[in-house]
TrEMBL record:
Lineage: Bacteria, Pseudomonadati, Pseudomonadota, Gammaproteobacteria, Methylococcales
Protein name: Small ribosomal subunit biogenesis GTPase RsgA
One matching Pfam family: RsgA_GTPase
Keywords: Cytoplasm, GTP-binding, Hydrolase, Metal-binding, Nucleotide-binding, Ribosome biogenesis, RNA-binding, rRNA-binding, Zinc
Enzyme Commission number, as recorded: 3.6.1.-
Domain EngC GTPase: residue ranges: 80-227
InterPro entries named in the record: G_CP_dom, Ribosome_biogen_GTPase_RsgA, RsgA_GTPase_dom
CP-type G domain mapped to chain residues: 64-229
Native organism: Methylogaea oryzae
Length: 301
C-alpha cells in the first residue's frame, strides 16, 4: 500500500486538482468519484500514482464551506476552509450597501468572518452618508480597513489583516478587487503558468478559483464572479439571525417565526424605532427579503 500524504487543493484543473504538498511542490491529482465535491482550500490526503501525479483519497473535515447556486436548484462548493471574506467597497462606483449586507449575512451563516475594505480613499471626499454607513458597520463589529491601492495607502494594515488566514475578496464590479490582488500577490502569473503546465489533467483556466500564498503571509482564494453569495437556503428568520446587529432582539419577538416585517410584537422593529438598530440596515433587510427564493405566505407576518 502506498503512503498517504496531506496536501492543500490550490486549483481546479480540467479533470482534476492541483494539490500542494508540505514541501510546496504542486502535483496534478485525480480524485475518486465517491469523495464528492472537493474545492480549492480543501485539505486532502493523496497518494502517488504514476509519474508526477497523485490520487486524492480523502478530504479532511472543513471549518467552512462557501457554496454557489448551480443548475437545478443544486449548490456547488466554491471554496473550503475560508476564514474571512473581504467586502471591497469604494467611493466609485457608488457603494452598494445592499450587496455588502447580503455578503455579510451569507458569511455569518457559513461561519466565515468578514472585513470591510474601503478602497480608493484617494477619491473619497468624505461623503457624510457613506461615512455614516461605514462607521455603522464598524460599530456592529466588522473590522473596517481604508486603503488606496493606487497610492499604496493602508496596505500594511491590510497585509496584517490577511496574515495567517485564508481570505477571499468580494464586492461590486470596479471597486478594485483585481488591483488589490495584484498588489498582494507575488509572482502571480508564474504560479498560474506552473499550474497550467501540470501534466495530464487538462488546462487550468483562470476563470476557476485558485489559491495563492501572499507575500506577507496568509492565503488568498481568487474566485471570479460575484454571484457566489447565494441565499437559496435562507428563510426570513435565518436571514435576520445572520444580521449581527439584529441578534440581541430576535428572541424577544412575540412569534417564533417572526419575519420582522409588520409590527405585531416584533422586538426588532421596536429596536429600529428606538434607534437601537440602524434604520438603513433594517430597510435593506426588507429589500433582501424580497430576493429570498422561498418566502412563504406565512412568513409575511
Ligand atoms: N483612484 C483609484 N483607482 C483605483 C484604485 N484601485 C483600483 N482603481 C481603479 O479602479 C478600476 C477598477 O479596478 P479593478 O481592480 O479592475 O476592479 P474589480 O473590482 O476587479 O472589477 P471587476 O473585475 O469588474 O470585478 C481600475 O481602473 C483601477 O485602476 C485606487 O485605490 N484608487
Ligand atoms: Zn420580529
Amino acid at each position: 500500500m502506498s503512503e498517504r500524504r496531506q496536501g492543500l487543493v490550490v486549483a481546479h484543473l480540467g479533470k482534476g486538482l492541483a494539490v500542494e504538498g508540505p514541501d510546496g511542490r504542486v502535483l496534478a491529482c485525480h480524485t475518486l468519484r465517491q469523495l464528492g465535491s472537493v474545492a480549492v482550500g480543501d485539505q486532502v490526503l493523496w497518494e502517488p500514482c504514476g509519474d508526477d501525479q497523485g490520487r486524492v483519497v480523502a478530504v479532511l473535515p472543513r471549518r467552512s464551506e462557501l457554496l454557489r447556486p448551480a443548475h437545478g436548484g443544486k449548490t456547488r462548493l466554491v471554496a473550503a476552509n475560508l476564514d474571512q471574506v473581504l467586502v471591497v467597497m469604494a467611493p466609485e462606483p457608488e457603494p452598494d450597501f445592499l450587496l455588502a449586507d447580503q455578503i455579510l449575512a451569507v458569511c455569518e451563516h457559513r461561519d466565515i468572518g468578514a472585513v470591510l475594505l474601503f478602497n480608493k480613499i484617494d477619491l473619497f471626499d468624505g461623503d457624510a452618508e457613506v461615512e455614516s454607513q461605514l462607521q455603522g458597520y464598524a460599530a456592529i463589529g466588522y473590522p473596517l480597513l481604508r486603503v488606496s491601492v493606487k497610492q499604496g495607502a493602508g496596505m500594511s494594515e491590510l497585509q496584517a489583516a490577511l496574515a495567517g488566514k485564508t481570505s477571499m475578496l468580494a464586492g461590486q464590479s470596479g471597486v478594485g478587487k483585481s488591483s488589490i490582488s495584484r498588489a498582494l500577490l507575488p509572482e502571480h502569473d508564474i504560479r498560474v503558468g506552473h499550474i497550467s503546465a501540470l501534466s495530464g489533467l487538462g488546462r487550468h483556466t483562470t476563470t476557476a478559483a485558485t489559491l495563492y500564498h501572499l507575500a506577507a503571509g496568509g492565503d488568498l482564494i481568487d474566485s471570479p464572479g460575484v454571484a457566489v453569495f447565494g441565499m437559496a437556503d435562507m428563510t426570513p428568520a435565518i436571514l435576520a439571525q445572520n444580521y449581527r446587529d439584529f441578534q440581541p432582539f430576535l428572541p424577544r419577538c412575540r412569534y417564533n417565526d417572526c419575519a420582522h416585517i409588520k409590527d405585531q410584537g416584533c422586538a426588532l422593529r421596536e429596536a429600529v424605532e428606538k434607534g437601537e438598530v440602524s434604520d438603513s440596515r433594517y430597510r435593506r433587510y426588507l429589500k433582501l427579503l424580497e430576493k429570498l427564493p422561498n418566502l412563504r405566505p406565512g412568513d409575511s407576518r
